[in-house]
Each structure stands twice: as structure tokens, then as C-alpha cells.
TrEMBL record:
Protein name: MFS transporter
Keywords in alphabetical order: Membrane, Transmembrane, Transmembrane helix
InterPro entries: MFS, MFS_dom, MFS_trans_sf
Segments passing through the bilayer: 20-41, 53-72, 78-98, 110-132, 138-159, 171-190, 202-220, 240-259, 279-300, 312-330, 336-359, 380-403, 409-432
SUPFAM superfamilies: MFS general substrate transporter
Species annotation: Subtercola vilae
Topology class, membrane: Multi-pass membrane protein
Entry GO MF terms: transmembrane transporter activity
Major facilitator superfamily (MFS) profile domain mapped to chain residues: 1-437
Length: 459
């Protein structure tokens, strides 16, 4: 869903009969929707059943895909993309379901594998989307996403067990509204600041208003009996530092998706670009996602042997090294492939570690909400990366045949910033406690054998 419309972004104004400024909402709407709904759906999943909420979100994803597939104007397209963004909450809920249904000894490997599917989705999705956009009607992109949502719904319905672990209390409606308003203000200011002007009253007002609302929201949550997010648990050192590290990993991961395609697709006449098509550029980035997926068992074994903290530190170091190498290695197509693969390697270790660190530090009945907040932190990092790196690439460019092309220095500066941010994440991970009293997992009870049903023994 995140890379679905990437191939058609330049053509969106013409396809939807709108302005270039309005067409950017096709991307922004999904980001905002996912950031707002993920922790809310996580809390609802803790209260009413994670599997039930996964099915609801997949239904919303299907509905959004259909709305977008039949749209030719900007307003229904944005509405469809909002529904698709809501569906992204499935990721955090899916990871949380693993804690409920798997034996603790198998949990680490499963979490690593599911986390790595984020990379597979982007790695496979982008070239497939490029092929469809180049050879078929662009509406087929959304019919494909609808088909995937339908298949996912069926698989979850027939395979995933019903969640039995529930949290009591009432849903925090006021907290949810406050969280949504504050987060929208900040994310809009960050994602649209370059377009509106970073010093414009609208940008500054959105940013200041969002911060003030979130401060008031935090005060309210600390006094609520049934908070959307238990800030006392979120403030525990393992959770807080993991979330801070998640921001840096989200930033670093998005940097490769934002900078490398521009480097690959820029014309060779500038002396910097590599002159490749969108399809070739997406294929060059594919190894990044594949490495994330196939290295997940290694990351899980490392976390089991040395602790997820070590996996997070190692992942951050690998990412930083990859970007440091990119500063001087950016003149051949295979250079970009190497850098993307190194980043994917590091992100794979980091993504495998972060949900495990969170689940070790929170009660089982708050897993989905805590993982939802962690997903928001990664999204926040990606949003900041889009704003910062986009500003750098746009402000230092040369005009070639009427198109602004980033300079070599701007690419190198982006790589350097991504390396520094990754190292900041490593510093945060170093301060995560080596030994922390872990909450027990809460697997769904399973009857060992028919002969023992009368004894009530469970495994």
C-alpha cells in the first residue's frame, strides 16, 4: 500500500484532473490515516480482540481499494487512500497476535519474520506497480490491492485463532480525538512545510498547535482510568528508548527509498545521475527487501542468544556503514544496489528487535496498543526524512531540460545525514537495559489431547 502509487505520482495531476499541490494528498492522506488509526486500532484490538480488528481493517482496506479503483477525481481518490491507510494498522496487530498464539520459544523468530515482510511488500510491490503503470490502465493498481485485501481477509478468517485475551474498561474517545488532532497538526507541518513554507503562519501554527494539543493529551491520559496509551508504561526506559530508536530506523529506511531512486533515475547528462527507468530503479531496490526477509531467522537467533538490544544496535551500525559507504560510492548502478542491500540488512535486524523489546516491557493485554505506538514512531521518522531530505534535494539542484536535478553534494549530504541519524539510534539502543524484568507472554490455551479434556489440563 505504501509503494502502490509511487510509479504514477508524476502523472497524478493529469490523471485526476487536479493541481500538483492537490495530488500530493494522495500520498499524505494515507500517511496521516495510518499514523492516527494504528494506535487506536491497537487499543481496540486489546479490548475487543485483535483478530476481529484485523478483519475490520482488511475490510476497510478492501473498501478503500474499490473506491480508488473507480475514481477519476481527487476527492474520492483521497477518501479511498484514507481507508487504505487505516488498513496499515494490521501490521502492529499482526505482530501482537503472535504473542497470544505462539509459544514464547517460537515468538522471536515469528516476530522477526512478520516484521521483515514490510521489506518484502515494498521490494516486490514497487516493480509490480511500475509494470502495471507502464503497461495497463492505472486503475488496475487498486484492483490488485483490493484482491490482496480480500485474500488476506480470507486467510485471517480461516487460519488465525480468535483472540481470547482482552482488556477491560471503556474506550478512550476523548484521548483518541486529542491524539488524532495533535498528531495531524505535527505531521501536516512536517510533510507540507516545504510546500507551504517553513516559516509560514500555517506551518508554524500547525506545528505549535499539534505540540500543545499533544501536551494536553498527555496530561489527560495520565489521569484517565482507561487511557488510549498508558504513558507510564510508555515512559519506561526500554519502551521509551526503543521508540526513539524506531524514529531513527524509520528515518534511515525511508532515506534509501527517497534518495536512491532519484540517483538511479536522474539523467546521466548531469554527471551524477545513472539514467535508469523507474522499473530498473525499483528492481535495484528489491534486494533490500529480500535481504530483510531472508535474514530474519538470523536476526531472531541473535536476539535469542544475545538479546534484542544487541540486534537493534547491530542493525543501526550496519545502516550507518551502508550510508557512509554511499557517500563515496554512487557512480555505478551496482553501487546503489550494494547500498540498498546494506540498508535492508541493517533494517532487518532492527525491525526484528523492536517489537520484541516492546513486548518484553509491556503487559500482554496492552501489546497491540504499544506496538501501534511503536509503528507511529517509525512513521514519524519516515515523515521527517521525507521533509528533510526532500528539502535538501530540492534546494540544491541544477536545471536540465526544464527539470530540476539534485547535485552530487545534495545526494552525499542526504547519505551523511542518514548515517548520523542511524548512529543516534545506536546510542539510544545502548542505553536500553541489558536485563529487564519481562512480562510473561499470554498464549491462547490449547487442549493437549482429547483424553485430557476432563482434567482441564492445557498446554
Amino acid at each position: 500500500m505504501q509503494t502502490l502509487v509511487t510509479p504514477i505520482v508524476p502523472e497524478l495531476p493529469q490523471l485526476l484532473n487536479t493541481t500538483a499541490s492537490n495530488s500530493t494528498w494522495v500520498l499524505t492522506a494515507t500517511l496521516l490515516s495510518a499514523a492516527i488509526t494504528t494506535p487506536i486500532s491497537g487499543r481496540l484490538g486489546d479490548m475487543f480482540g485483535k483478530r476481529r480488528l484485523v478483519l475490520v481493517l482488511l475490510a476497510l482496506l478492501l473498501a478503500g481499494s474499490i473506491v480508488s479503483a473507480v475514481s477519476n477525481d481527487i476527492v474520492p481518490m483521497i477518501a479511498g487512500r484514507v481507508l487504505q491507510g487505516a488498513g496499515l494498522g494490521v501490521i502492529a496487530l499482526g505482530v501482537s497476535i503472535l504473542r497470544d498464539v505462539l509459544h514464547p520459544k517460537r515468538l522471536g523468530a515469528a516476530v522477526a519474520l512478520v516484521s521483515a515482510t514490510l521489506g518484502i511488500g515494498g521490494a516486490v510491490g514497487l516493480p509490480v506497480s511500475a509494470l502495471i503503470a507502464q503497461n495497463l490502465d492505472w486503475h488496475y493498481l487498486f484492483w490488485l490491492s483490493g484482491l490482496l485485501a480480500l485474500i488476506g481477509f480470507g486467510l485471517v478468517y480461516f487460519i488465525v485463532p480468535v483472540s481470547t485475551l482482552r482488556t477491560g474498561g471503556h474506550f478512550d474517545i476523548i484521548g483518541s480525538v486529542g491524539f488524532a488532532i495533535g498528531l495531524v497538526g505535527i505531521l501536516l507541518a512536517v510533510s507540507k512545510g516545504g510546500e507551504w513554507g517553513w516559516s509560514s503562519p500555517v506551518t508554524l501554527g500547525m506545528l505549535a498547535g499539534g505540540v500543545l494539543v499533544l501536551l494536553a493529551w498527555g496530561w489527560f491520559e495520565l489521569r484517565s482510568k482507561n487511557p488510549l496509551v498508558d504513558l507510564r508504561i510508555a515512559a519506561r526506559r526500554p519502551v521509551l528508548l526503543t521508540n526513539l530508536a524506531s524514529i531513527t530506523v524509520g528515518f534511515a529506511f525511508f532515506a534509501s527509498a527517497a534518495v536512491l531512486p532519484q540517483l538511479l533515475e536522474s539523467p546521466t547528462s548531469t554527471g551524477v545521475g545513472l539514467g535508469q527507468s523507474l522499473l530498473v530503479a525499483s528492481l535495484c531496490l528489491m534486494p533490500s527487501g529480500l535481504v530483510m526477509f531472508f535474514m530474519s531467522p538470523v536476526a531472531a537467533r541473535l536476539s535469542a542468544a544475545r538479546g534484542p538490544r544487541v540486534s537493534l544496535i547491530l542493525g543501526g551500525v550496519i545502516i550507518a556503514i551502508g550510508y557512509a559507504v554511499a557517500i563515496g560510492l554512487m557512480t555505478e548502478v551496482w553501487h546503489a544496489v550494494v547500498v540498498a542491500t546494506a540498508v535492508g540488512f541493517g533494517v532487518g535486524f532492527a525491525y526484528a528487535a523492536m517489537p520484541t523489546l516492546i513486548m518484553h516491557a509491556v503487559p500482554a493485554n496492552e501489546t497491540a496498543a504499544a506496538n501501534g505506538l511503536n509503528s507511529v514512531m517509525r512513521s514519524l521518522g519516515s515523515t521527517v526524512a521525507a521533509a528533510v531530505l526532500g528539502l535538501i534535494l530540492a534546494s540544491s539542484a541544477v536545471v536540465v531540460n526544464g527539470h530540476a536535478i539534485p547535485t552530487q553534494f545534495s545526494f552525499q549530504l542526504c547519505f551523511a545525514i542518514a548515517a548520523v541519524v542511524a548512529l543516534l539510534g545506536v546510542v539510544a539502543a545502548f542505553f536500553i537495559p541489558r536485563r529487564e524484568p519481562a512480562y510473561e507472554t499470554a498464549s491462547i490455551p490449547v487442549i493437549s489431547s482429547p483424553a485430557r479434556v476432563g482434567t482441564g489440563a492445557t498446554a
